[in-house]
Structure formats: C-alpha cells, structure tokens
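Structure ticket #2291
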Amino acid sequence: PQLPPLCLVTDDLAADHIVTEGHLDHIARVAVAAGFPPHVVLRALTWTPAQRLRLYDRGVVSPGKRADLVLLRGELAAFDPAVVLAGGQVVGRDGTAVYEARSGETGALEGRVDVEAQDEDGFRWRVDLPDGTHRFRAMRVNPRDTYTEAAEIELPVSGGEVAWEARTVLVRVRNRHGGDGVVFAPLLGRDLAEGAVATTYAHDSHNLVTIGTSRAAMAAASATVVADGGGVAVVRGAAGESVAARMPLPVGGVLSARPAARVAEEAGAVRAALEAWGWEHLNPFMSVSTLTLAVSPALKITDRSLVDVVRRAPVGATVGSSTTRD
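Resolution: structure written out below.
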C-alpha cells in the first residue's frame, strides 16, 4: 500500500550520542530495520520535511536547488555517510569536519545568563506558612520517559523556611533572562547520593535549573554553570566540593562553538556523572532538561509556578492545610 507523507526527524540528541550512534543516519537505519523500504526512508528524511517546512529550494537533487547533499557509501539501506556538502561546499568527510571554523560569529550570543552570584542563601526555600508540618506538591520522575507525575510530601516549616534537606531532593528554577522568578519543588523518584546538577539546557525557556540534595551542593553546581556562561555541571558531596563533570554552553546558554569531539566528550562525562549520582533513566539528559517543559504532562515547574499541564493551569506549592502546628 502507498504510505502517506512521512517525516523522520530527531529531537534532543546529546553530542555524545550523535558522535557514537549517529544523527539522521541512525534514525534511517532504525527505520529500515523496522521494515521501511530504503527509498521511503530517504524521502522521509529529505523531501517531505523540506516541503513541510516550506524550504522549497532543497530536499531533492535537482537543477536550481540548493546543493545540500550527502554522499552515501555502499548500499542505500546502510545509510553510511561518506561526504557531506552544504551549499555546494564539502564540509565533512568520513565523519570529520573539513572546513575551518570561523571565530567571532557567536560573540553577540554569549554572556546571556543574567542571574546574580549563586550562594547557599539563594537555595533557602522560604514560604509564607506557620511553623509546623505541611503537605507540599512534588514532582515524581520515572526511569523511562519525560512524564512527571504529581505527588505529595510532608515537610516541616520553621521560621518561614521549609526544612527539606535530608528529607527529599529539591529542584529550583531561577529565571536567567533578567527576571526575578524563583520556584522550588520537591522531587521524588530518585535515590541520589550527596550532590547536585545545574543546567541552563532546560526546555523551553532554558532558565537556570538546579536539582540537589543540599543547599551547598546546589549552590556549587549553579555557580559552576554561571561561571561557564551556561551549560551543565554535576557536583559530588554534601557541599558540592568536587565537580564530577561540566559542559560549558556559553552560546545563549544552550550551545557550544567548540569542536564536536570535545563537546561530545563533555556530554558523555555529564551523562556518566548523572548515572553515577543515581539518576537512572534511559536518557538522563532528556529527563533533567524537560522538568521545565510546561507542555509535557503532567506536573512541570517554571520560574513562575508549578504547572498542571493537563489542566493548563498554574498550581500552588502547598496541598491542603498544615497537619501540625507548633
């Protein structure tokens, strides 16, 4: 039977995955292994996406079209790239870039993480609640996908501050675009060692997101990311005294202008550090970076509030009333 128009695309592939597994070529091989004819896969990688995006000057080898081409080695079904051309110029050969990187092109996009200096005091979770034990909304993550379930946890409040350390993992979102929004939430579903991770690679607003087991570790991780101009950092220890891995992303807080091989090495180190910390997931990068994706069910966190994605509504941090009071 004739298949309907089909696009094969990628989303959220970290640099280490691209270097080791591939990009669209990997998707193509998966599709062929699943039973799709190679010529259908080729069309779904090229012509159909170009038409869908109204990029009518590309997507097919034809006179007058843009010469964005990939020369494949061997059989089509293997989708083994040998030479890559962009605009008619050879830019890659056998998996290696063959063009000279031009300096100075990203300067206008650097220095875009606009937050104050990060210290422990910024990770005090202050609330307008009386002393006692209160029920708070929490986010529960899982080891498979990006679904975050709404949950609850009881935590003590004393002097207007939630005593969360040694009781739960905490996630904080801090606006990094010059705003003053800060939101906290407990995070359930992970048995983590002492430490923290901070990142500005956090869809879709890419604010400064920090997850940790102590205020000191969270401050250390976030300070590392801010010093790098954006990126990802994983720290170990109750005070975050050891940086386990870091991936600077100073271009808009989400990109790097350095060679792919180096970025891939750093991404692999971050992935390994997250897994060693206890962040068990099929894709740790995706799991961490989508806690703020407020269009993905079910409970997400932004710099303005927690969001009930199904109801499309902001929700408060507390659930019901306090259970005890001093």
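Closing remark: The first strand starts at residue 69 and ends at 73.
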